[in-house]
């Protein structure tokens, strides 16, 4: 799994128990999934369709650094299914896992649009293909 994004837990990210607020973490995960899908599908019109059960296994405290990992599971006709793990950067302890996040590729009118992708592509490879 690739961990692209790190977050520093600040006082405004905490719940009344002084641990990371789950809703804040889910917003970060949703944004990370959207960015991943936008880059993979080469389309800025992508939405979250489904998020499977969310398994909180530990928490983060103020000043912890966490990292969000996203990995593709399946390319559908107009969708991309991802899985996610968030962990503490320093201890590597898992904070949350999500088995499925389904992102849907849309056209200009907000309707599902086939994306024609079947495997992970890296931006550097796309750039080399254009330059080469």
Supply Rg: 16 Å
Work out the count of structural domains: 1
User: What would you say the CATH architecture is?
Assistant: Roll
Shape: globular
Kindly state the number of beta strands.
6
Fraction of residues in helix: 10-25%
Please, how many helices? Answer: 2
Largest sheet: 6 strands, antiparallel
- Nearest-integer average pLDDT: 94
Q: Which CATH first-tier class would you pick?
A: Alpha Beta
Low-confidence stretches: none
The CATH superfamily title:
Hotdog Thioesterase
Strand content: 35-45%
Distance between the termini: 29 Å
Order of helical and strand elements:
EHEEEEEH
- Secondary structure class reads alpha+beta
CATH topology: Thiol Ester Dehydrase, Chain A
Descriptive report:
The structure is a single chain. This protein has about 130 residues and is α+β, with helices and mostly antiparallel strands. It has a single domain (about 1-130), classed as Roll (Thiol Ester Dehydrase, Chain A), CATH 3.10.129. It is globular. The chain has two helices and six strands, in the order βαβββββα. A hairpin with a 5-residue loop joins strand 5 and strand 6 (about 95-105). Strands 1, 2, 3, 4, 5 and 6 form a six-stranded antiparallel beta sheet that branches.
Question: What are the SSEs and their pairings?
Answer:
Elements: E1 2-8, H1 22-41, E2 46-51, E3 54-56, E4 65-75, E5 79-88, E6 94-105, H2 123-131
Antiparallel strand pairs: 1-4, 2-6, 3-6, 4-5, 5-6
Concise structural overview:
This protein has 132 residues and is an alpha+beta fold.
Question: What descriptors fit this protein?
Answer:
132 residues, alpha+beta, Thiol Ester Dehydrase, Chain A, six-stranded antiparallel beta sheet, 37% strand
């Amino acid at each position: 799994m690739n961990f692209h994004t790190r977050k520093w837990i600040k006082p405004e990210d905490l719940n009344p128990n002084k641990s990371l607020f789950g809703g804040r973490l889910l917003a970060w995960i949703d944004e990370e999934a959207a960015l991943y899908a936008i880059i993979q599908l080469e389309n800025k019109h992508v939405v979250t369709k489904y998020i499977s059960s969310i398994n909180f296994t530990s928490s983060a405290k103020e000043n912890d650094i966490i990292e969000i990992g996203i990995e593709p599971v399946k390319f559908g006709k107009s969708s991309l299914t991802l899985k996610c793990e968030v962990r503490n950067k320093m201890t590597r302890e898992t904070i949350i896992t999500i088995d499925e996040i389904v992102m849907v590729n849309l056209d200009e009118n907000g309707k599902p649009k086939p994306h024609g992708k079947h495997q992970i592509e890296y931006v550097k490879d796309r750039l080399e293909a254009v330059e080469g």
